[in-house]
Design a protein that fits this description.
alpha/beta, TIM Barrel, 8-stranded parallel β-barrel, 3-stranded antiparallel β-sheet, about 20% strand, globular, binds ligand 9MR
């Protein structure tokens, strides 16, 4: 199909008209281009939601119809002390999303990371017993999900429980409770809000070994009659990895289990990064070197082109799986907000998203929209 970009003035708030043979399609934002395919989401945090960045809200409303709190619903943020819950920022995110008709995913209930040490200890610092930790997990899930019942439609119930070797991660949850901790988390979550969709979320879980571990989790939950609605593939990806054939296989294998598949935290890193730091194991970091931060003032055209082509291919693949993929969420609103500026090497200038630091769409933005419109 021949496509011509009719609009020349691509300012971000403008409506863009694409011409596809005899059809003229008006696209005022990302979410429009993918309407009928899958939801398009973003992660948000305080700067966007508390109005510190005044451009953020209208921009998010224009481009996204799904939202995830980047940090505000993690245990350490929302439940910082045994009797202390802090819902303020998460409440603001949920109100904003509801007012603008966005699909909300609560992120995340049970994770080994960003969970304070006290969660696993009694009042004098001794490790909790299995029963006491289950009780604490249940209270947390009931309190947080209860607070958002009828508002937050879906939850990442368990995050990152499988290692790259496909084996269950030996986290404090696992060590204290045992290997049924995942079942318990899903059981409590379903009791807390029977209407909420419940997901398992991980990184690198498109890769065959890890994928096998996640498939075991889904099968086991299903065998035990427990609810699980979806698997999130986080999608912390790179210019040279993963091979999209693997992503394609992963999507198909998860979908064959009868669950929704979502890309939940997507970005494409463009900076030189040792491959042992691929993924999202935030306990690993490397030291800053100028040679690892080569594009401080701008992204060279050659790398911009690589990014554009990779995004186009990726969205081509996701669109070919649109019967299986229910949502694609970017991990950040624009390049300036991406966690990839500070991980795995702090203080770099990265360009992993579709919008630049001034909210301007990058060539990759037009490329993914064109992929969507090819099929319209
Ligand atoms: O993007 C998040 C960053 O701001 C936080 O510092 C970090 C630690 O909580 O978590 C980042 O988000 C992670 C997500 O919650 C789970 N998957 C990996 C993401 C990147 O680390």
């Amino acid at each position: 199909m021949k496509r011509n970009l009719l609009s020349a003035a691509f300012i971000v708030l403008a409506t863009i008209i694409f011409s596809c043979n005899d059809k003229h399609i008006t696209v005022s934002g990302l979410k429009d281009a993918f309407a009928g395919d899958f939801l398009i989401g973003t992660a948000v945090d305080a700067p966007q939601i508390l109005g510190i960045d005044r451009e953020a809200k209208p921009f998010i409303i224009k481009h996204f119809n799904a939202i995830t709190a980047e940090n505000a619903m993690k245990w350490e943020s929302i439940h910082p002390g045994p009797d202390k819950y802090n819902f303020a920022l998460a409440d603001s995110i949920v109100s904003f999303a509801l007012a603008n008709d966005m699909f909300i995913t609560g992120h995340t209930l049970v994770w080994h990371s960003q969970t304070p040490d006290w969660v696993f200890q009694d009042s004098i610092g001794n490790p909790l017993t299995r029963e006491a930790l289950l009780e604490r997990m249940k209270n947390h899930i009931f309190t947080v999900m209860g607070h958002y019942k009828g508002k937050v439609q879906s939850w990442d119930v368990v995050n990152e429980a499988i290692g790259d070797d496909g084996q269950i991660r030996k986290s404090k949850w696992y060590n204290i409770i045992g290997d049924d901790y995942i079942e318990k988390a899903f059981e409590f979550a379903h009791e807390a809000d029977p209407d909420a969709e419940l997901y398992y979320n991980d990184y690198n879980n498109e890769e065959p070994l890890k994928r096998a571990g996640v498939i075991n989790i889904v099968r086991n939950l299903r065998n035990k009659g427990l609810r699980i609605d979806g698997v999130g593939i986080q999608g912390h990806w790179h210019l040279d990895s993963p091979d999209f054939k693997i992503v394609d296989e992963g999507i198909s294998e998860y979908a064959a289990l009868g669950v929704k598949v979502m890309i939940t935290e997507m970005e494409i890193n463009v900076l030189p990064t040792p491959s042992w730091l691929y993924g999202a194991d935030i306990s690993r970091i490397a030291e800053y070197k100028d040679s690892l931060n080569p594009y401080v003032s701008e992204l060279p055209d050659s790398v911009q082109t690589l990014l554009t082509n990779r995004y186009a291919r990726l969205f081509g693949l996701l669109l070919s799986n649109k019967d299986k993929v229910s949502r694609v969420t970017f991990w950040g609103v624009h390049d300036g907000y991406s966690w990839k500026n500070n991980w795995p090497i702090p203080g770099r200038t990265n360009y992993p998203l579709l919008f630049d630091r001034n909210y301007q769409p990058k060539p990759a933005y037009y490329a993914v929209i064109e992929e969507a419109l090819k099929l319209k």
